[in-house]
Amino acid sequence: MGSPFVKPIANQTAVLGQPLTLNCTYGGYPIEEVFFIKSGGNGNGKTGNGGGGGGKRRLPFDERHLVPMLGSVTINPVERSDEGVYRCTVVTSNGERAEQAFHLNVVGKCNPFR
Question: How many CB atoms lie within 10 A of CB 33?
């Protein structure tokens, strides 16, 4: 048996309207669950659609969020409401938990012809 761990996750930047895949590198044994949680606020005092007034919600929570494999989530397309604090959480079958938090910043598309 090994205690769960999650490697630190750097803050991420996503481009509005583009797909983004978030990956969580983890370990431990035996792993029961690996999932992402998004906090309600987006870091600027406003509440995003994913939060329900400052609460936390487990992804996926709408059709834009896909879980292609354990420890990964794809957001397609990224919207402003996706900005905020996320946590990757790992749980072993005996209930031990580990998690790492990171911030997702959403930026607008660049126009090279301006």
Answer: 13
